Amino acid sequence: MFAYIVRRVLQMIPTLFGVMLLVFVLFNVFGGDPSLVLAGKHLTAESLANIRAQLGLDKSQFAQFMIFVKQVLTLDFGTSWSTQQPVSDIIGSRIGPSLLLTGSMLVVDLLIAIPLAATVAYFRRGLTDRIVTICCTIAMSVSALVYIIAGQYWLAYKWGLFPVSGWGNSAFHNLWYYVPLPMLMGLMVSLGPDIRFYRSFFVEELSNDYVRTARAKGLSERVVMLKHVLRNALIPVVTTVMMSLPYLLIGALVLETFFSIPGMGNAVVLAVNNSDFPIIKAITVYIALATMVFNLLADLIYKLIDPRVQLK
Q1: Which among 53, 161, 238, 293 is placed 20 to 30 Å from 211, CA to CA?
Q2: Local structure of residue 160 (DSSP, 8 states)
Q3: Which family does the record assign (predicted)?
Q4: Would you give the distance in Å from CA 58 to the centre of its chain?
Q5: Strand extents, DSSP E, 149-284
């Protein structure tokens, strides 16, 4: 196990180098000259030269790439071009609200989707399966914007069950006061496809020969479902969940915008609108690093779920 982890970590090095090279080429070679954006309307040769010197754009491409490599290794991406704040401070202040929203939404989604998917798979082709499938299809057919606007108008403005938007300073207060409505709107969008997706895994496992063998041995349905079917069906579920975890870092763009949540989603939108390359590059590198780490964790979880899995 330890040798496998070391080997995977070493494999991350060339992958990270490739990500850094790709990001550098996209932003520094094809992204245009950011000094023209920062100089604004009052562009002079002197101001343009000063900005290029401050950003290191007057150096060679190789020197600029080495500066970027140093930024990645130290996780220090300098200051934001639009706010002049350190990028690390901006990300540090905004990642909490995003994780509070998307993390709680993911947990509730899994707690609802996995048991419901297993239930409808067990009663497949029955009335329960058909009703749930129809409800999921209808829910998937409605735009996220419709859910958000209707939820804010009826649940918040008309009935006063939730605040329309906003965010506080206390994580506990935010979790119980500001998070429920955007989380509910997010679940309305995600539960339908997740239930149908997870259902397919359980249906596939229920059709395997080992399930018929377990039943022929006289094992109860509870043991068959929990000990055999659930364990094997969780492997693709874990893959799906672990692949989605890195994107929790950038939050929920639409939800954060409509509900005025100061998270990473808002930061991404502002950075794109302002051509704030340092923030965009930092978030891109963070997502790449998180993807590699969570892929490794997914393999380790496979081993915990089923010790027969061979890690290669």
Answers
A1: 238
A2: -
A3: Belongs to the binding-protein-dependent transport system permease family.
A4: 36
A5: none
Torsion-angle region of residue 165: left (phi > 0), alpha (psi -120 to 50) or beta?
A: beta
Task: Give the DSSP letter of residue 211.
Answer: H
Sign of the dihedral defined by the CA atoms of residues 9, 67, 18, 252, in that order: positive
d(CA 134, CA 141): 11
- How far apart CA 284 and CA 23 sit, in angstroms, is 8
With a CB cutoff of 8 Å and minimum separation 6, the contacts of 134 are none
In the block, which residue shows the tokens 């930092």? 282
Query: What is the arithmetic mean of pLDDT over 233-255?
Result: 87
**CA–CA separation, 89 vs 109, rounded Å?**
30
Query: Among candidates 39, 73, 75, which has minimal Cα distance to 55?
Result: 39
Question: Which tokens hold the place of 180?
Answer: 């429920």
* CA 7 – CA 16 distance, rounded (Å): 15
pLDDT at 91: 93
The partner residues of 86 in beta bridges, in order of sequence, read 79
Which one-letter amino acid corresponds to residue 145? L
pLDDT in tens, 147-199: 999 999 999 999 999 999 999 999 999 999 999 999 999 999 999 999 999 99
Interval 34-45 mean pLDDT: 72
Sign of CA dihedral 280, 281, 284, 290: negative
% of the chain surpassing 90 pLDDT: 60
Beta bridge mates, 79: 86
pLDDT of residue 87: 94
Average the pLDDT over 119-135 and give the result: 93
> How large is the average pLDDT for residues 270-281?
87
Handedness of CA 176, 192, 264, 259 (dihedral sign): negative
Confidence of residue 312 (pLDDT cuts 50, 70, 90): low
* Total-model pTM: 0.88
- Residue 163 and residue 259: Cα distance in Å, rounded? 9
Say if CB 191 and CB 112 are below 8 A apart. yes
